Amino acid sequence: MIKKGMRRQIVLHYIFVVFVALLLVEVIFLLAIRTYYYDSVYSKITTHIGTAEDFLKYEISGERSPNQLQKLLDFFEMDYTELQVLTQDGNMLISSTGFQPDRTITTSDVPEAVGGSVGRWVGRQPGTNESVMAVSKLVHINGRETYVIRYVTSMERIDSDLLNLTLVSIGIGSAVMAIVVLFSFGLANSIVKPLKNITAVSAQMAKGKFTTRIKGDYRYEIGDLASTLNYMADEIIRSNQIKDDFISSISHELRTPLTSIKGWSETLVSGGYDPEETKLGMGIISKESDRLIGLVEEILDFSKLQQNEMKLSMGRVDIKVLLQETILNIWAKAEKKRIHLLLECDETFFIKGDANRLKQVFLNLVDNAVKFSPEDSSIVLSAQRLTGSELAVIVRDSGIGISEAHLGRVRDRFFQVDALNGGTGLGLAISQQIVELHGGKLEMDSELGKGTQVTVILPMTEELPPEAPQAENLL
Length: 475
Hints:
The protein has 475 residues and is α+β, with helices and mostly antiparallel strands.
């Protein structure tokens, strides 16, 4: 007995389907063979009747007489059958066997013959209990005498042949079922064994052993499942590595300003410095404190986005004004590298969004452009209407660019193209999620050594009249 499980279900279902199919095929086949044999006997008798009737109208004439009935027997006689001549009431007048001439026939073939058709009846012969077929036909002699010609032939031999054929069919069906059972076990094993292997490897992965892999050249859905689990393990390892790199990076990012703050604090506490040196130290402390606050806020923003807890204060946003503010905020940093910030936006565009969060996105994009652009270069910010009701804000630089291998991952959380430039690797990930919260999308095109173009596509809103108040709501 097969124990409960998928193997048992597959085997039982497979056997059941094949068994039902075989049963239907054999039943239809045997019924067709039986019908063919029985129809062949019936057709042979009806053909003989038709031939005999053609000769009958030329050979027999006169009144009814025993000689006339005998002539009927001679004309319609057929090998291996009993021929009976009946009245329309079913009374037997004469039989080719010579027995029971006074018997009345009550089977259904006689009324059918009297009705004008060729009657047919299959059943058991009274007395002998033999399987027979009776075929009856109404015959007219010279338009005056009417008789029912009835043929009775044994079907025992045909039934015996059909029985033997049935037994052979059952034997063949049993052999087929035996083969099906063997194949069903093979089929079940081909599905169950890979699943058991996948389950075992998955259990190892659940325990943290992500270096374990599903081995085997599996096909179709099982192969897809194995590939997906292996890919999942690779992604978990990559995510863990990114997380470890992030922890290492953020530790360094936090340690550097903290070291500066601690060093200058101890220095200033010791006293003895002129006002200029004290001012310099306090400036460094303030700058590094702002840097720490920025790092912490970036991590908090990412945490809120991951938990779907970020709230947007929605209102009408003038994109041109927002880009101008972005340039003013980043101008001092760009000026240090003699980078020119250009704004190309002649029209006024309005969207429905959170101005502060959108400004955070554009600041991050422009800051990245400044960070990775060479001195004496330019960064262009532009806004243009797309087809339909969409707006595209483009930040284009001529910096170092991003390789094709990194372009697909640059928006992943914690990923940094150049770890030496600092940062958490969360800026683009946060920016993308903020854009998506506004119903937009962020696209990047870059070529190594030639620069990068980042496009933020946002849905536009109907322009409101200047006197209309800005509607705000929390999402």
